[in-house]
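agent: user wants the full assembly modeled, not chains individually. Plan: 1) parse entity lines 2) check alphabet per entity 3) run joint structure prediction 4) return tokens. Steps 1-2 passed, two entities, 406 residues total. Proceeding.
--- entities ---
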Amino acid sequence: MFDREWMKRWQDAVNNNGPMSWIGKHFTADMLLGFGDKHFVVSFVKGKIADFSDEIGPESCYQLAVKGPAASWEKFCQPVPPPMYNDIWAMGHPLHGRVTLEGDQMVMWQNMRAFTWALDRMREI
Amino acid sequence: MAKIEPIVGRYIWVPFEGEEYRIYYEEAGEGIPMVCLHTAGTDGREWRHQLCDEKINKNFRVIALDLPRHGKSIPPYDWYKEDEEYKLTAKFYSGILMAFCRELGLDKPVIMGSSMGGNICLHLAEQYENELRALIAIEACEYSPGWHLDWLRHSHIHGGETCATSIFGLMAPQSPDKYRWETWWYYSQGGPGVFKGDLYFYSVDHDFRGKTEKLSGKVPMYYMTGVYDFACTPDMTEEVAKKSKNSECIIMEEIGHFPMSENPDVFNNYLMPVLEKILAA
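--- prediction returned ---
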């Protein structure tokens, strides 16, 4: 889980998802997703994952980083996730802190519907 | 034969603190008046299943109002030139609610509210215990921080989609998709800044820490919280219930922050024993 192969399956699930074509029409942003010690910069372009990379270095650019323990993401990805792990804002809310949100948080709020819809596709792979 | 629901909607003008508020409410049933309070940023449509449930409305006159600025209840006429952005307070919320009950001539109503409607029950118990029969405080706690956010009224952010999506995860994955997305739909339709303004009460003005244990217990309190509520967790409700005299705490499995609208079948099963106790009292 959370390796390149898994990311490719998630990319396909997002890019082939019907509603994402209109929900994500204006969702263009670079995000860092941190699953424990595995980090990926994910480039969303008009609601599709155009690219992802685990080669994180001094030239990596992203607007928002969402990082948490792999165990948190594993719970999030379950078909029926347990309480407090069923949603990115549930996990990121300061009351719980199952993931951290760092960077330009407005990117998440501006694209919240498309971003959460994309993350929910993780439960389908 | 046409499928027509028993719900009837009306408008009532409620005088309060020098203003007159045109308030929309829906009702169904006969018996003990039970006023249902919607959650922040939305309206009384959340209660449509309880209004229509014969097991409930055969003994209760179920009334669901839209607070001013919500649903079909218009804001005060001068809202557009207010010096400060809208912020709901416990004083206004409890005051307008009791003024509504008096104007409608309700005799010792039951008040049932969820989220901010649950939290206001603590204030009602403190200030209006002689006018109430029972309080059903759903998803209620003493203090619920972290929700009064500028993102929820921001010129660079789509208010409807963002407000609605921000609450989606408060619902349980086991709740039927059709009802979760109906709840999302209601949230997408709030007026600009109304959700955020309500959350001023929810996360800032409502702070009952140190006060719960001082409530007399004259009005029975029924706390009900769903396990998927990440704004008011079961632990937070159990804590306030432990301090409340004459109270009962019910933790509901496989349901979240909007039990009445996200999964009415499951919620009504939890609610019926509470209503039977109120009937028997």
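agent: reporting back. The two ends of chain B are 39 Å apart (CA to CA). Residues 160 and 188 of chain B are 4 Å apart (CA to CA).
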